[in-house]
Amino acid sequence: MAARTRLPLQSLIHKNGNVFRSDRIVHTAIQEPVYPPIVPSLTAKSKSAKGRQIAEHLDKVRAADVQEKLTFLTRVQRKKYVLCPQTFALNADKWYQHFTKTAYLPGLPEKFIVDETKEESVPDTQNASSTIDETAFADIRSHVCHSILQENWYMKKRQPFLQREQEHYVAPYLRNLVSGLTHAMAKHNPVLQLSSLDFDPQVNFYWMRGQRTIPRGHRGGRVEPIRFQIDDKPHSQIRIPHQLPQFVPLEVVMSAEVPEIKFAPDLLPMFRRQYENNIFTGAKLPDPGCYGHTQFHLVPDRYRRDKMAKRNLNDQIEVYLRANGIASLFAWTGAQAMYQGFWSHEDVTRPFVSQAVITDGQYFSFFCYQLNTLGLSMETDAGNPRKNVCWGTDSMRLYEGVKDGAVVGLDDSVLKLLVQFLLNRSG
Amino acid sequence: MFKETAQRLKAAGPLLAQTTLLKEVPPRKKPRVKVDIPGLERITYGDRMHYVPGLAKPSFPTWVRDWNDPSHYYAPKEEEMPLHKEKPCFIFNQRTNALEGVRQALWLTKSKLTKGLPDQVLSLAENEANQIENQDERVQNAIRHARFWDTTEERPSREKFCMALLRSLIHLCGSLQVSHSGLGRRILAEKYSLAATWNRGEDLFQVRGQNGLLLNSIAPLPVLAGKEEVQSTADHVLETFYPISPTIDLQSVQVYEEQNHTGFKEDYPYPHAHTLFLLEAGDTPVTLLPEQLRAKMIMFAFGNALARAHTLHGTKPRVLEQPIVVQSVATNGRMFQYVMFQLNTTDLQADEGVKNQVWVENDQLLYDFAKVHPLIKKRVVQIPPGLSGYKPETFQKFLSLYLHGAV
Asked: What is the ipTM of this complex?
């Protein structure tokens, strides 16, 4: 138009701007793109193509439902470190804390009143739901004594085979203890009425933490994540359909630190194998009891106090229990979180809480775990301030021994703590 | 040789003259007995210190170690053992597969059979107050957990799901402890060993060994049949199965000890055997058919009752004023058998007199099918995947047996 009239376009615009505006309808909204967005290629042999492939895969995983998500994350089998909760390795608890990004706090959260004197001096301010009355406690105490005595005194039994005393004497008594306590506590804790009690269940978890440079081979020089797998077999566990309440808020900054271990996991020692990557809470996805309440672990014969003392490993007794508690509970809470659709790139929006009691029959240790983050892989760990927390006690003796058909030296405080553990519920 | 060839040879076995694959293992030959003829001196090559053809083999006295080494122990012959007796004893143990099943068990225990559980027990579960919240849904979830969800693999094995199902059902029933405090006065005993002895006819019988899970309680079970009914059983005639002997399939031993032991000490706080749970999960070499499983249940329930009676009143045979009741539940993961045994008398020698009583519920299916993959024939779904055909009555009977004595 400007060429035909031989007038400079600029002067026309400035003089008759309104005329032009009224003639043409100009869309002030963003114009629809006529061409597709410019993204890196998907199939080219370039770094940006690889990046786009990874991004598309992550989007596909995010969009899938839970069962498919689990399949995507566990489909590819590669060599991974097998983390045994009941391990012979020395000082394994620090290493396990590093692998699971767990801060360990000695003692239990304020919820569990351990101090007996505190209880007696302040009876009125106690919450009625956190304690039970004397008759119920006496029933529980007698049931516990009878369970101990049944296996050790009343029942006619052969001598156990060598190194099988725990399975012979303690495992049946622990089963009776757990089921008896659960049924007795169901009156005071309604969530236990809807619980499922599993004996000899299986708990598995698979995750990636940290990275390493592949030293040799056709993939040498490349950076790959370090994979871990826990295959745990607790003695028994209680699963509930509702989640336990958190101990501390999700974003709170804990005083304890996660220990940093710069060595490769091989030095613990830990060994790598390649097999099925399982993520399992004890029941498959459709089970309504998808949240965990309490796990009970039995210390095997090899790690009993007397056997450890014979091998001059007295200091390792507590370390072993801590490592067991941290690893087992991390696996359980992690699996519970993955069953809800969270994974390393979609971090948990609410903390997952579970408890564990580890015992060798006589000595009991109590652990509480709060899973605050699943983002442990190399991409998600970089800017992640959250860490998981584990509270734990040292081992406490429940009874001294069995003499002439009676349990000697039964400690009520340990029983009270057990009761408190089982009374934990949401709302 | 190739697998297919081996299979075909096996199929054609009887037709072939030389069947190397079907060779029967011959019975062990008895060692040659050395006869010592008095007055005849045996010329042996013992002095010559080497074999000489024509001379007899010398027999040296057996060398006996002068100290007792437990890892080199030679057991004496059966006849020389201290507990050897002339009269054989017939033992019913956990591996016994009785040919005549329930009939044989009834004859051995001198019992009268009644089909179906007594009404006072069945009515326990029909009462609204005794039911669990969302009972059907929770039982079905328990079955699904045991059958499908308990493992990372496709399906758990029978040994696993049988035990898991039983434990889940017991846990469900135990949740009623909230409303019935009597349920708390019980305890489970695993791997207990039973011993009970009695004379029947001219033979001696025993029930021995570990059998299953036993639920013990502080209080005894209430008596099912009153005094008149007990006296009327004296008219009942026991069913015999001539020509088969009642001792068939029982382990006959001549080295035994007559023991009567409940498996627990005298001052056990839970002295009364409440329910015996037997599992038929296919992990033993012998798979029991339902009839034989019911026989096993009857025998072990009887054994528990008899051991208790002997502990209370002594081994002298008598008619009990207070009959002892023991229950039993057996399952293979899908089919349940229920037995209630009432011991009225320990006088089992003669065929006449007051009899014991047995109530049996046969072959109660808890559910029809629990399939991981659907059964599709000609593109029509015959059996859907998952749990199908759940029958609530079976669990009601289980619950009523569990609640019996505590309500």
From this structure: 0.89
